[in-house]
Amino acid sequence: MVLQTRLHDKPTELAAACQPLSKQLKTNHSKMSEIVVSKGGKATFACELPDSSFTGKWLQNGMPLQDDGKRILISQSDAEHTLVLTKTKKNDEGKIVFKTDKGNVEVPFELTVTEPPAIDPIKFESLAQELNDLKTGSPMVLRVPFSGASGITATWSFNGKKIRSYDKQFKIVTTSSETKLTLEDFQPEHCGKYEVLLENAFGNTKVPVEVALSNVSGVNFQTMTVPGETVQKSSTMIIEQQEIPSKPAGNVKFDNMSANHFILSFITTSKGGDVESYVVEKSSGGNNWEQCAVFKPGDKTVQVEGLVVGMRYTFRVKAKNAAGESEALESRAVTVQKPSNPPVLDAEVVEKIKGEKNLKSGKDFRLKIPYTGFPLPIAQWSKDGKKLTTKGRIVSETSDVDTSFTISGLNATDSGEFSLLLKNKEGSAKASFKIVIIDVPSPPVGPIEMTKVSAKEMSFSWKTPTADGGCSIDGYMIERKDTKSPGWTPLTKVDPDTLSYTATGLTQGLKYSYRVKACNSEGESKPLTSQLVLASGPPSPPTAPEPTKVSSTAISIAWKEPTCDGGSPVTAYYVEARQDGGEWFPVPSSAVKGTTASLENLTPESDYEFRVCGKNSTGKGDWGESKKPITAMDAPEPPVIPESVKESLAKPVNFKAGDEIFLKVPASGIPKPTTTWSHNGKELKDERAEAKVVKGVAQFRLVDAKRSDSGTYSVIVKNSEGEANADITVNVTGAPEAPGGPVKILKASSKLINIGWAPPSDDGGLHITQYVVEKTVCGTDDEWSRLGKVFSGEDLRMTTDHVEKGKSYKFRINASNNFGTSPYLISNDILAGDKYKPPAACEAPKISELTKSACVLSWPEPDDGGSAVTGYLVEMKRIGRRNWVPQNGGRLVHERTLKVKDLSQGNEYQFRITAENEGGSGPNGKESEIITAMDPIPPPSPPTDFQITDKTDKSVSFSWTSPSDLKSENFKGFAVERCLEGREQWEKCSTTPIRSSKFTVCGLKTGDKYKFRVRSYNDGGYSSSSGVNEFIEVKQLHEKPKISFDSSLGQVIEVVASGTLRLMASVSGKPTPTISWRKDGVDLDKRGVIQTQGGVTSLTIRNLAKSDSGVYTLDAHNPSGTIQKAVRLVVKDSPDPPCNIKLGEIQDDGSLLITWDPPKNDGGNAIKHYCLQKRDAYSRSFQTIKDKITGTNFHVRDLKPGCTYYFRIIAENDLGRGDGHQSNLLTVVQRRAPLRIERVQYGKINLNKAASINLALKPVSVKERSTAKFTCAVMGKPDPEITWYKDGVRLRANNKYSMRNHYGVCTLTISDCRHRDAGIYKCEALNPTGRACSEANLTVIAEKF
């Protein structure tokens, strides 16, 4: 074996430099030169300073560099400083800085050292020795070790063809340091050239391997390393020469002259070099100045410390930078005042006044609080958060040592929270206290409201007083006086929380007045007195009316008399009703003498409410309203579609396109059924469709009918009692489609043209009656003339001899049926000629040298049709006008260029050219682009920041920044251009202008290399270009897929049965990953809706069932890898039936051991217990043997010999009971005993058993608009009759309530629960031997918005 290795890895050499623009001493550190170099390459750093006086040192990541004469070379040539790293290492990465000794100027560079893939020749050669014994039939293992930055990928190929992962004869394994190709059975056809391509972000390496079989097997290795890309980004640093700043301008002001807060303020500006700081100096006399403060430019104030109280000072300010100090700006002389401090209240006094102060009404309140502080503060008082005005009874005074507060003649309005804010310019202090004025309370708030008046009692109410007098109210004293009594009589004293009272013991016909006084520990308030009220009134409300008989057309109600007649007998009742929450109306129109009433002629299935009031001699009383609406409906019936109707619907129904499809199917049913319509087996989801049930008829409307609406329409009519269905065949007719093309030329000469065509693909559902054929001379498409008609059954062809030699013609054909006419089928140009043809149409002329009054046209020579062109007719049209005007005086132009004059500035024009030869005039040429007569416009500025944003195997995406001075009125767009490697010609990537600042070039070939550029253009032409200088290879960017689920989802999702599962995840990767959803490892087919768009995929499954539980996995795959993420779904529901019921041996005492296994699916909740039931083989209903069995076995006793039984096991969890599992038939055979014949004694056997509740109802709580479900288990012999009640009112099955009795398990389902549905629900079981009841409460929780 011969090993040959060639490493082509030339170290890169890179230089970065910074050049000065002007001699200044200021650096712009936001700009930095960036250098990217391959490991082992040479890097040169150079910077040029203003002159040679600037010396300094080089730093690498903060550490100084020393010249070692080998790897690190440092030099200075005049003002230029250079650092050379002859062979870069990985640890050289980081920040390289040249720092000057003068001015501490720093010139920064950023160095990045890359590591492209590399081969270790020694290790490579040692591994190659393993192939010396390569033979036919033995394994061949090619191993290539490598090193380099992470992210290295290996791609193997054989004889120039890439080895794919699905090629089973090869096995490729790549680790972080080696790639290995294994061929288990080496054969002669496997000889050839193997090559591995190692790539990372910084370069690639190719390793070709020649494998051949001869007397001596040989393997030739060869490596080619492509160095990583070297990038240099240099910048220019500005170094400025500083000058001494000028004298500050403005005035020095004194904001505060206190010794402890002496503050100067000023407006300062200084010209010359940049100011680094300002220096403040002080002098107490003479010329002795000393520095007392320093501040930065932009500071508005500065504080001076160390001044003596009473001393007189003068201050001056200087501007300072590295070049020196400016002249001084001097202030006036000022005297330092004594120290100023914020006010501080006496802590002992503040602590003492805290809390609540109880003061007697009428007294005076005086408060004095000592304080310290200078200057004299201002006292601001407030009560209950509102500022107090200190005048009249309220006085506030502040001296140098204290502040005082006085209130004269306290009253109840003075109670409240008082606050003091004492402040001066140095700060503030606060204190607060509460004053409670002790007094009798104010009177209760009136007026006294009479809520109920009758001959025996009066009820009235009042409101709490506005003030409690500083003490809690301990009650209210109530007194009464009638028109015959001289004074007030105390009735009672009620609790402070009671604000109403009912007075009894009245005398009918007398007038009464009441008064109320509030009481506290200080006494009673002034009274609140009512007006005189007569002791007589209307009766109280009757009881709520209850239905006694209900049908779809009439409702009868009854009620009980009022508990109070108001002091006079009830003479009549008034009954009112309302329909579906509407207005109340009388039932009947006159008063009712008894306690019953009826309402007839009702609207079926409407809800009615009733109310009743009594009347006596004083008038009508309050209404007593029904507790809930009563639905006018008959007994439930399943939907029915008569057979006669189905037979009539079997005939097809015809409609015209554009008309409305209206279908009717009579369907009766109670409650009112709903309908579902489908078209050709698919549910209709069309915005044009409307379905409803009106008066027992299922109606369907579909507006704007189309041909595609033809087919079979199916309707399912359904209510709670059952369903019915019917099919209707609909045929929609319309105009036919265009005749079949293209138009065939059967014969064409200078005398005639014969054409043919095919019939339409869709005749509109009707027979084609005729075809109409028209023609026109090319160039006059708006002037068509009719040739004739072809009728049904005739040959589809037409001949015309009305043609002129040398002219071209077009033909068009349409088809007609009884509905209408089809679109036209139009032919290509057909020439009527023999020898010479007129010239072809000229191309659109090109326009140049455009000004406001003239332009130059030029055009290429057209096809001459076999005879040389003799001249060209040039025509012009002004936009907005119809006529084309010949140019050149109407004469033919013999050259292919013409200058057009006499244009009007600002108008728009188009041009066209017509060629002539011996065959005649050719068709009119193509129209030119529209131009505006104006002087030339300069081209726009070029775009900037052109960069590549994405690449695939067939496309490259770019973005750029629009020019800042772009003028939208002249701007046309951007043009992206490309140049293929090896060519010099640039070509546009888009035929239309690009208006945005990004673009994707598609249709490229993988592996090709291009240069790209972008230019902006307007009416004045194209700008210079902005682009990428190096060639870009077209290949896919690779990025491993990433999946991100919604952060709110956990690893396990629990959803109640019938709910909806929504899983959403964002998926990214390059190229775009292929996305698939699986459940328990199996691809999801029809279950659920999968949507993927814009990198987001979602899975939605509605009406979840237990079978939907499992592990849902999202897979994302692209060539860069595969990723999976999974979540586990648990659908909570009632459990499955138990399984594997085993019946043991029947014992002598008639007992039997039954065992079973738990359900395969527990519904997501642990099994609480089991219910065991049995039934006789000749009976239809099961009876419960034992409920709430916690284990999986039970001993059944008292089985009767000779009887046959079925047993059923039902499992139950927190969500309810599941379906039962039935055992095999068991026959109880009595073991034979010795035969004994005894006298038979006959007796009467009573098999009856009283009704009982085995499983009671449980309370239910649901959200508003949800469905509630009550369940209980009953038993008895004979089977009990089940009745449901709500709040004592019997319930009947309708759209609201659904009732079911399944082998003793009774269920009440309440749909669309509202607040009015809350209450006590009762299930009553009744048979001739007994009665049993069970009650439970329903709570409806209001929706939160």
Automatic annotation (TrEMBL):
Region (Disordered): 618-638
SMART domains: FN3, IG, IGc2
UniProt xrefs under Gene3D superfamilies: Immunoglobulins
CDD domains: FN3
Keyword Lyase in record: no
Pfam family, any one: fn3
Ranges for domain Ig-like: 20-114, 117-214, 638-731, 1041-1130, 1251-1339
Domain Fibronectin type-III stretches: 248-339, 444-539, 541-635, 738-835, 841-940, 942-1037, 1137-1233
Keywords annotated in UniProt: Immunoglobulin domain, Repeat
InterPro entries, per the entry: FN3_dom, FN3_sf, Ig-like_dom, Ig-like_dom_sf, Ig-like_fold, Ig_I-set, Ig_sub, Ig_sub2
PANTHER family in the record: FIBRONECTIN TYPE-III DOMAIN-CONTAINING PROTEIN, MICROFIBRIL-ASSOCIATED GLYCOPROTEIN 3
Protein name: Titin
Organism classification: Eukaryota, Metazoa, Chordata, Tunicata, Ascidiacea
